[in-house]
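Listing S7. Sequence submitted for prediction.
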Amino acid sequence: MTILNSTGRLKMNKTVIGACATALATFLTSHAVNAEELIRAKLRACPTGTAIGEVGSCGKIWKLESGEARIDSNGRLHMKVVGLVLNDASTGQYNGTADGVTHVVGALLCAGRVAVQTNWSPLSNHGKAQIDVKLDIPQGCIAPTLVVREVWEGKVGGWLAAAGY
């Protein structure tokens, strides 16, 4: 039975709308392409002096309150850091801050070499940053490693946090 409202338009009740929404959600879920998760790991801060492949170390000691990184087979990268700040008394009043590191990049290393890297993302002075992008993952990536690299004096530098080292 068709029900028209006072303007002559089709009137749909909440039950019909709800049923349509449920059917659409079920269809989309059953037809979605699920990407395989390649890496999902907690991030650890750079202890200084430790290179990861061709990516040099951070130079000073850093600490990280929390951090996570993941990338899937479709190239969807998510990195989040909270409290990524200096933990080095030699930095004086800047200890406990990001001290001039205002941006970071996320990088995927394959066999220790930078395979692909994100654009610059802001890092707050309190060490908070988030990266959500889609990357082109090279085929045959051996020993994939995710790193958060500093942008220092306008250049991408050493790593500040990494997954799987």
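Caption to Listing S7: primary sequence and predicted structure tokens for the chain studied. Confidence is low (pLDDT under 50) at residues 14-32. The domain at 37-163 is CATH 2.60.40 (Immunoglobulin-like).
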